[in-house]
């Protein structure tokens, strides 16, 4: 498929929250025309997608299925790629955002955009890198061209599932990392946690269809490092707050914006139980979020697990 080679393309960005606004600014910085849509803006989806060369969704997970459904009713020309930048899992169906978009728009190229991209840093025009991944490489290259600039280095990938799951699963680990820092467990503990977490992400991520090497890239390890080491991350702040004795309800109220890791943990544990995949770190995050244990008990449970080799033969 050939995509338009225009100096100025028209992009529709769905979701005017922190990430949608930052992505709109990045593409606007490259001279493209941006139509931003959000419930809070009060414009209609019909007018927002009119004339779009590319549609970007940066809607929180809880709004993806409904918005994709509405857009399906409206209809968009077949060649227009849909870029999904949401990092989460659907609570009802356990699907990833790209799976939802693909089911509703089977004839459209679907591109996943994900990487270590804390929006507050991007808004300050600090340099960053990200990945655009698709089964349709021409569509990934089209998205790469529209977003790449001196502010954002954009890499392509042919592994949308691995790219999407890296960004999604690391949010659970960011909660664990916030707990680790909140309890002041030290750098040894944090290094052990993140390294074992990467093994866990690869175990479940490859089971669900991602490629191992993708989890060592920007959208996996890269995003995990960014999110697990920054108080700009809302998921990290959830874990940090829990370690400091706050309730989840108070933490989420104080955040006032999306921390996808909370819902993702619940969905991930449902998947892991269904598929019988061991996810010990995520399991402790789940028990903590659901008030089954306190942060110190979560640490003890991880330290007291059965002794075993670092790698199973079938891993990597
Ligand atoms: N912030 C960041 O640094 C990054 C965030 N992401 C991911 O992007 C996604 C959005 O995050 P972020 O922008 O930070 O979150 P925000 O809370 O700032 O914004 C959420 C956006 O989702 C929209 N939304 C929520 N529920 C619905 C719904 N039911 N129907 C339609 N729209 C809905 C909101 O609409 P409205 O405006 O009308 O309220 C808003 O535009 C998340 O999946 C997040 O993980 C990915 C990379 C970086
Ligand atoms: O995904 C992100 C950075 O890449 C944003 O992280 P939080 O959603 O935890 O703020």
List the helices and strands and how they pair.
Blueprint: E1 10-14, H1 18-29, E2 33-37, H2 45-49, E3 54-57, H3 61-74, E4 82-84, H4 97-104, E5 110-114, H5 119-123, E6 128-133, H6 137-147, E7 152-157, H7 160-182, H8 187-207, H9 218-228, H10 234-243, H11 248-255, H12 261-275, H13 280-289, H14 295-303
Parallel strand pairs: 1-2, 1-3, 3-4, 4-5, 6-7
Antiparallel strand pairs: 5-6
Helix pairs in contact: 3-4, 7-8, 7-9, 7-10, 7-12, 7-13, 10-11, 12-13, 13-14
Binding site for substrate: 87, 234-235
Main location: cytoplasm
Active site: 170
Provide a brief overview of the structure:
This protein is α/β, with parallel strands linked by helices.
